[in-house]
């Protein structure tokens, strides 16, 4: 357990969910961008809140713990810890239990992942908060427990308790959410992959992106999709770049959702012509990502993205990064220098 | 190249297609049952057929090469060889080309895999014939070429040029047919798995099994299915038996097709209670297969199968075997002793 009042630093990575054919099941973490967070345990009087959120960025996100994604995740964390404590006390097996009626969390969030960009901004805050909280009290919970708590943050953000971004954010690498009820996350090995992301500065509401999906799909399309999913998993695990590339095809979601993103089809053509293995919409958009085998290709892909959105006079950010294999990291005790 | 008139012996394994959640994409070969075949090159006069089929079993299958699955596969084999020969001659790169207007194949088939049992009986004949033919003339074709030729046999058998059984029959092990057009087969590593198969002696016509499928599926079911497919591929490649077991679930095809097979639900419950990892309908049935981690479990599963079908007074065969990792094998020159 970290001493009361001692700050720890946390890095929480951005994540790409809905990895092309792997809608709702496959996602991965990236090394850039990421959120910076600081957390500490504090003593509190009965009238003081168990969770204090301090935003050090300019996004004006709510600080009420129930409305803040990190706060909602921490509420679930404290509730389960307390419930387990009661059981341990009744069994007489408690040792150094924390009493959350007298101890609270203080969380500072410096959001570097723009909210609404489609690369897991809310997941980074939720995941960072629960990984930090767990570290502060001596890591009693497993990663899968932490995913469950953090999913409460996603519910605050989008109304749905999904694990698509939380799973890779906490586990790192490429993750498969095989099942939501019961929750089962499978870490998938992957070879070195360079990731180019473009965030065109338009708003795509997750609710809209969900509502335009068809509730039924043709069996023949579903079969094509699951061939690609099986190929993608096999390609990642074999380190077979060509197989990964051929499998990065989505015949079900992308044809519907891509109409929400200006220039999508043209961008895809240009990125693949520049040598990308494949890619698609990140999460529910508007960000778009492409994977490449080599850094130079990823940089060439970035140029194509810039050229296209400059041509459309649409403000945008780009990132060239790699898959983050570690997930949320505790950077040690202390504070980030800038704050 | 094997000398004219010299017989070779071929073993062509049975195969399980539609591996639970992997409808139309995942299949595997088994070590028992298998077809025995003998083949040789013969000189022929212009009035003699290029392909002679001799059935040494009692199934009364057609011997006209165009109507016999092995014959149809060999016709495709000879056609492509001849087309390539013409190109090689035009380029002046031919060397020891075989002239199929003067040379033919004689094929003896001893079918030990009962036709219509749902474990790739037709695929074994088609695959065995083209692997044998390739061996006889010095292996000019790749395995993927041979799969393409053998698919013509499936067209004769079921009207559809599918590779679900042909791919594992030729490659061995567990195979993924990622795409049919263009054909792409991915060999998947797998840990030791014991396979129990029961063949209840009823007829399920492939055409019927296809026609009762719904042409549309719910997106939420498709997502569940692709989570399981990704889990199954990852489980096989990691050798994670528990993950394999949890992923062996089919929410789309099995609920519809299982009504064609008497006692299916009860059998499934009994096999899983006996310790099987999971299983389902083999191909389009009527055979049912279950996978187990241990031989003893596979034998206990067999007892459950026998008990159930004895209870239903339904004639049946069972097999306890393992996954065949080699595919069609040339057993060397000579003839099977029994014939």
Descriptive report:
- 2 copies of one chain form a homodimer.
- In chain A, helix 1 (69-91) runs parallel beside helix 2, helix 1 packs across helix 3 (143-158) and helix 6 packs antiparallel against helix 7.
- Chain A is built from 10 helices and 12 strands.
- In chain A, strands 1, 2, 3, 4, 5, 6 and 12 form a 7-stranded mixed beta sheet that branches.
- Chain A has helices at residues 69-91, 121-136, 143-158, 166-171, 206-211, 219-238, 241-247, 254-257, 264-273, 295-311; strands at 8-16, 26-43, 51-55, 103-110, 174-179, 184-188, 194-200, 216-218, 278-281, 288-292, 316-322, 329-333.
- The mean pLDDT of chain A is 94.
- In chain A, a hairpin with a 6-residue loop joins strand 9 and strand 10 (288-292).
- Chain A is of the alpha+beta class.
- The A-B interface holds A 21-26, 176-179, 184, 186, 188, 213-220, 222-234, 237-238, 243, 246-247, 252 and B 21-26, 176-179, 184, 186, 188, 213-220, 222-234, 237-238, 243, 246-247, 252.
- β content of chain A, as a range? 15-25%
Helix content of chain A: 25-40%
Rg from Cα of chain A: 20 Å
Average predicted local confidence, pLDDT of chain A: 94
> Total number of β-strand segments of chain A?
12
CA-to-CA gap between the ends of chain A? 24 Å
Biggest interface, chains and residues, is: A-B, 40 and 40 residues
Oligomer: homodimer
Low-confidence stretches of chain A: none
Give the SSE string of chain A: EEEHEHHHEEEHEHHHHEEHEE
Sheet having the most strands of chain A: 7 strands, mixed
Q: How many helices of chain A in DSSP terms?
A: 10
Shape descriptor of chain A = globular
- The SS-based structural class of chain A is alpha+beta
């Amino acid at each position: 357990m970290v001493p009361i009042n001692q700050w720890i630093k946390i890095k929480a990575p951005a994540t790409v969910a809905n990895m092309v054919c792997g809608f709702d099941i496959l996602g991965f973490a990236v090394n850039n961008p990421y959120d910076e967070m600081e957390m500490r345990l504090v003593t509190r009087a009965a009238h003081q809140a168990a969770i204090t959120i301090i935003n050090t960025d300019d996004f004006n996100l709510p600080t009420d713990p129930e409305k803040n994604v990190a706060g909602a995740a921490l509420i679930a964390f404290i509730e389960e810890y307390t419930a387990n404590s009661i059981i341990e006390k009744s069994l007489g097996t408690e040792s150094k239990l924390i009493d959350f009626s007298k101890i609270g969390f203080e969380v500072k969030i410096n959001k570097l992942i723009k909210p609404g960009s489609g690369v897991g901004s809310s997941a980074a805050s939720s995941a960072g908060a629960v990984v930090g909280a767990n570290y502060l009290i001596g890591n009693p919970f497993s990663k899968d427990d932490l995913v469950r708590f953090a999913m409460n943050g996603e519910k605050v953000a989008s109304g749905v308790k999904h694990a698509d971004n939380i799973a890779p954010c906490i586990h790192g690498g490429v993750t498969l959410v095989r099942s939501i009820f019961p929750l089962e996350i499978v870490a998938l090995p992957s070879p070195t992959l360079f990731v180019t992301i473009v965030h065109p500065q338009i708003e795509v509401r997750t609710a809209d992106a969900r509502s335009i999906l068809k509730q039924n799909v043709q069996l023949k399309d579903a079969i094509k999709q699951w061939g690609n999913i099986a190929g993608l998993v096999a390609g990642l695990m074999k380190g077979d770049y060509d197989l990964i590339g051929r499998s990065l095809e989505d015949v079900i979601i992308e044809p519907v959702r891509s109409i929400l993103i200006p220039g999508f089809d043209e961008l895809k053509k240009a990125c693949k012509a520049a040598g990308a293995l494949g890619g698609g919409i990140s999460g529910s958009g508007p960000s778009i990502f492409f994977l490449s085998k080599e850094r130079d290709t990823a940089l060439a892909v970035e140029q194509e993205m810039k050229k296209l959105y400059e041509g459309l006079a649409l403000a945008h950010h780009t990132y060239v990064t790699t898959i983050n294999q570690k997930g949320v990291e505790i950077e040690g005790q202390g504070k980030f220098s800038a704050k």
